[in-house]
Amino acid sequence: MSSPSHSTPQGQEPRWRRLPEERPRQILNAALEVFGEHGLAAARLDDIAKRAGLSKGTIYLYFPNKEELFREMVRHTVVRQIEESERDFEVTSGSATETLTAFMRRYWTFLRSSQFAPLFRLIHAEIHNFPDLARFYAEEVIARGHRLVAAIIARGIEVGEFRPVDPAVAARMLTAPFVMHGLWCTHRDCFASVAKKTDAQILDELMQFYFHAIQADAVPRTG
Amino acid sequence: MSSPSHSTPQGQEPRWRRLPEERPRQILNAALEVFGEHGLAAARLDDIAKRAGLSKGTIYLYFPNKEELFREMVRHTVVRQIEESERDFEVTSGSATETLTAFMRRYWTFLRSSQFAPLFRLIHAEIHNFPDLARFYAEEVIARGHRLVAAIIARGIEVGEFRPVDPAVAARMLTAPFVMHGLWCTHRDCFASVAKKTDAQILDELMQFYFHAIQADAVPRTG
DNA sequence: AGTATATTACTGACTCGTCAGTAAGAAATC
DNA sequence: GATTTCTTACTGACGAGTCAGTAATATACT
Question: Do residues A56 and A125 both lie within one domain?
Fold first, then answer.
């Protein structure tokens, strides 16, 4: 009767296209989404395939197995995040305070991007099974950020803008609340304390509070 | 020939005991360990049973299914943590600074206990599948802590010990770095920045830095 | 140009191991 | 021996991984 569905209908789109260059990226992006929602074990490769717009078998043409796909996804996402962070990096010639302010804005944008929270959760969830991935993340993202902040702080101390703190400590004291607030803001429906605040407000609060903590010592009021 | 091994050997210990009162607790404790290591999906009920010193079938005498066991485990652990935190709670009659110092010590001990990190990871990993549990945790642990800290801070501001910050903001700025450092310290092998520090050192750093941030405003040095 | 043939990219139905949940019956206790 | 608590052996569903077959495309030839 009607034309069989498996024959190519004339003048129409083919049922699928050959896109060997695109596939890895498509699969990795879909993997981040699905793994991010369900975790490694509960995520189904069929779902990842569907989300990427292809079939499960195709995934196995590009990745040897589920675990390796997970590893590659984490590495790929981390590397992409680093690249994006460094894209338009420019050494601010202004004061340490200005440089630090600029860093905080960038950092907050990064933490509020759609990829950060899922990746954070996945890495922590699988920290026992993939300690190498956790170390990779800790070194390339956390420690890298710490070094950058510490350098800015150290400069600020030299110039007298900031009080003489250990720059490494001060760096941790900056990133920790930023990361935590980033997580809370990703789940405003759960965390009431940030529910009614905008991202911009939270950033302001973080910045104000932090600068108070590192501002150059002052003479206490007489008392 | 020899006596069959499945018959009770006379005058010896029974192969197992009936302990209907103890079972739920044993199972929940084992569940926290195994879920904490593998996550909900990858954890095997056989492993939980073995860790609890009983067989899988027994679990189903006390919990209807895996998911409900997970829910109960989270609720049970959260409730126990709250109870432990409030056990020897006493309103310090000293200054706000002293009260806050005492709180910080208790809070840090809590964050460094063996139950905190696994629970944190599990709740964040399953936040999509169990938003009710996440809300329960956020309200009963996070928000409760925030209120307590905010009250102390507010008192300190009134008396003039602390500068006039929004107590709610200050509370978040305290718990956030504490939690984050608690997590990092649980995985010192991954996070180099805290690898060489003891728990006590980290606590000192957290306390010193925080008190600088909320200390009463002082007259800046002339310049 | 068009047509035949070879190659590559992809699909989807199948297998096979794993594990949550069940049921039959053994061991402890009353 | 009656009852409760627990074990062991089982079942069935589910999903990772495989592979025979098919659709798309490239190349060779006319």
Answer: no
Which residue range(s) make up the domain with B91? 73-214
User: Is the CB of A193 less than 8 angstroms away from the CB of B163?
Assistant: no
Give which of A74, A124, A126, A162 to mutate to test B binding, by max B Cβ within 10 Å: A124
Express each pLDDT in B42-82 by its tens digit. Answer: 999 999 999 999 999 999 999 999 999 999 999 999 999 99
Residue among B221, B223, B219, B94 nearest B163 (CA):
B219
Residues B60 and B132 in one domain: no
How confident is the model at residue A14, as a pLDDT? 80
As given in the structure block, the two tokens for residue B22 are 């103890």
Q: How many domains does chain A have?
A: 2
In a domain, B198, yes or no: yes
Residue with smallest Cα–C1' gap to D17? A65
Please give the pLDDT value at position B219.
Answer: 59
Bridge partners of residue A215, in order along the sequence: A162
Q: Domain check: are A40 and A121 in the same one? A: no
Instruction: Please judge whether A135 and B212 are an interchain contact, meaning their C-beta atoms are less than 8 angstroms apart.
Output: no
By C1' distance from the Cα of A18, the closest nucleotide is C9
Q: Do A55 and A79 lie in a common domain?
A: no
Interface test with B, best of A35, A120, A144, A190 (most B CBs within 10 A): A190
pLDDT tens readout for residues A124-174: 999 999 999 999 999 999 999 999 999 999 999 999 999 999 999 999 999
**Domain CATH number, residue A46:** 1.10.10.60
For nucleic chain D, give residues with Cβ below 7 angstroms from it. A 6-8, 14-18, 43-46, 56-57, 60, 65-67; B 16-20, 23, 49, 54-58, 61
Contact A112/A199 with Cβ under 8 angstroms? yes
Residue A206 is classified by DSSP as: H
CA contacts within 13 A on the Cβ side of B60: 6
Among B129, B134, B217, beta carbon nearest to A187: B134
Distances (CA, A) of A147 to A82, A144, B192: 14, 5, 12
Other Cβ atoms within 10 Å of A171 Cβ, number: 24
Reported confidence tier of residue A200, pLDDT bands at 50, 70, 90: very high
Residues B37 and B86 in one domain: no
Structure letter (DSSP) for residue A12: S
Q: Are A164 and A83 found together in one domain?
A: yes
The overall average pLDDT reported for chain B is 91
Residue at A221 is within a domain: no
- pLDDT tens-digit series, residues B161-184: 999 999 999 999 999 999 999 999
Say yes or no: A139 and A112 in one domain: yes
